[in-house]
Amino acid sequence: MSKEDKGIEWWRRTFQYKTGLGLTSELKAQYESDYSTILNKKQCIQCYKDRDWMLSYSPMIRFMTQRIKQISKDDDLKFDEKIICDVCDNTKSGGYHPDFGILLCQNRLRDKWHLEDTLSHELIHWYDQLKWEVDWLNLKHHACSEIRASNLSGECRFWQEFKRRGGFTFKIAKGQQECVKRRAILSVMGNPNCKDKEHAERIVEEVWESCFNDTRPFEQIYK
């Protein structure tokens, strides 16, 4: 089969899949497998492309990576080896692990600006780990870093929250604080040492004032 014929066949199967006309269960399963592979590859390429752009040009990302290098004991730290893209099976857009680095969920990122906020969030966790040796099973430690990451990363800026919460459901007054608190509670709820939502809310409240007002390594933040 020629390259052109293969292209026509792919489009034929795509049309069948979208409409359901003349598509057997076996062909549908094959198409879903092929489409998933192609989509994952495209997402992966775009994720790494956006990651590299941010590492080179984003003021926020460059600032955080510089601060991390300053306090890291790893003299040969390479961020392109510690920040990887992959498919995630949950609703998070990224994650940080002290032993491995940062995971960017290529299938959960809306665009490169969402990647920037996600990467900023995880870099703040990385900074906190190096600066204070965070015990991630300690709920107060976890809550404090989550508050700082959501507050400092930019993911709770007005426009981001406006889009995320469906327009005018977002309150302008104290919107930043509400967003940060909500996201911190959700994250702490996922900690194995957290009993329930009420437990997470109590822990976040206990550390709220000191952690929300701690803007290190920034002198101040603009909401």
TrEMBL record:
The gene is NDAI0K01620. It is an enzyme of class 3 (hydrolase). InterPro entries: Peptidase_M76_ATP23. This is Mitochondrial inner membrane protease ATP23. GO terms for biological process: mitochondrial protein processing; mitochondrial proton-transporting ATP synthase complex assembly. It comes from Naumovozyma dairenensis (strain ATCC 10597 / BCRC 20456 / CBS 421 / NBRC 0211 / NRRL Y-12639). PANTHER family: MITOCHONDRIAL INNER MEMBRANE PROTEASE (PTHR21711), MITOCHONDRIAL INNER MEMBRANE PROTEASE ATP23 HOMOLOG (PTHR21711:SF0). It comes from the Eukaryota. GO terms for molecular function: metal ion binding; metalloendopeptidase activity. Its EC number is 3.4.24.-. It is found in: Mitochondrion inner membrane. GO terms for cellular component: mitochondrial inner membrane. Keywords: Hydrolase, Membrane, Metal-binding, Metalloprotease, Mitochondrion, Mitochondrion inner membrane, Protease. Belongs to the peptidase M76 family. It is a peripheral membrane protein. Has a dual role in the assembly of mitochondrial ATPase. It holds the Pfam family Peptidase_M76. Its main location: mitochondrion.
